[in-house]
Amino acid sequence: MGKQIWKPGNMLYPLPAVMVSTADTKGEDNIITVAWTGTVCSDPAMLYISVRPERYSHHMLLESGEFVVNLTTEKLARATDWCGVRSGRDVDKWKEMRLTRGKAEKLSFAPVIKESPVNIECKVTEVKKLGSHDMFLAEVAGVQVEEAYMQGNGKFELNKTGLIAYSHGEYFSLGKDIGRFGFSVKKK
Length: 188
Fold this sequence. Notes:
It is a single chain. The longest helix has 9 residues. The chain has a seven-stranded antiparallel beta sheet with strand order 3-2-6-9-10-5-4. A three-stranded antiparallel beta sheet has the order 1-11-12, with no helix packed on it. The chain has a two-stranded antiparallel ribbon with strand order 7-8. With about 190 residues, it is mainly β. It is globular, with a radius of gyration of 17 Å. The chain has three helices and twelve strands, in the order βββββαβααββββββ.
């Protein structure tokens, strides 16, 4: 069995499914579901999101230069999907999905989604026009973590939150543990 040539834009690989909250400087805010996101640097902590210019949140991201990556869980799967197929131009996503705005610790405009176990507060450092999407490169300004997932030693149990991923039009819960970092070279 051979391999077929596949158009790169067909997105075959799993990505995190996150809800991004943002706001303009006048107090208008919105939630957008984003699959194009990821870590780009650990020191300083930086990540990116990519958003189509025609999306309602795009102008807010440009205006305030702030956003929050709210990690999503199985409990938030419906809201995650719904916020990705409805426009903030037409509906109040917060109200319709019964999500709660929270105050970001390090941002002036963008709220956090309180129901999310992890809120990653970001300040845009660069916007790169790439074609169908603009990439918002951002420095992580702060992170809020739900206490229920913290161990006494300060370790965060992210895998116990029920995170979901998005792969080729479908949502999946993260699967079973198949190994720890370095397991391939660990002496038995």
